[in-house]
Amino acid sequence: MRGRIAVAAVAAALLLGGCAGTSAPPSSAVAPSLVTAGPEVRPATGDAARKAAEVAAGWPGSVAQQAWEHGYFPIVDTTEWLPPDAFHSGEDKAAYLSGHLDLKATLPVPVSDTSEVRFADGSRLVLPQRSAKSVFEELTLPDRPCSGHCEARLTVTEVRPGTTTVATSRGRADIAVWEFTVAGYDRPFRYPAVRSQDPYRPAPGAGPPAPPR
């Protein structure tokens, strides 16, 4: 819900190039010569076609390509996973979006500051861990706007570690999550314990980018 545009923002960064020499995923992901307009797909023309050609030409050997092929780069939104019945009422939804959560549980203390991403091909990637404390602090930032039912609150009764599977540029991957049990909900609210990498930083073990062609 919050941050649902995160995936689109990263995709736009790859398409438009946040730094010189970087650009979009290869045409197997999205054909660079096409422009989408709702459900219709039509060929790009004019400036859009020229930009698409530049994007495609700049992709091979770029830092973004290294991240795409060797790093942890989800191709779906991994901001949060809400339970199927969220929310029971407008008051609950307002409380959640406004960050009005009361913690009535002990936050797990991580035994490590790293978390391992396990890919379907057997490869693994160790990345900095996002703690349960950090998740709760982000959920309850004091400057969140309140558009109604501002007195409503939700109570977190338990926080525990878990795992989930996400789709990435390298196929499916298992990642660690934090599961927050909220009073009144049978299924937990889940949040990733590891974040997507910066697409413009070389992935661990990827080696230096190929020289420009």
From TrEMBL:
<feature type="signal peptide">
    <location>
        <begin position="1"/>
        <end position="24"/>
    </location>
</feature>
<keyword id="KW-0732">Signal</keyword>
<feature type="compositionally biased region" description="Pro residues">
    <location>
        <begin position="201"/>
        <end position="213"/>
    </location>
</feature>
<protein>
    <recommendedName>
        <fullName>Lipoprotein</fullName>
    </recommendedName>
</protein>
<feature type="region of interest" description="Disordered">
    <location>
        <begin position="193"/>
        <end position="213"/>
    </location>
</feature>
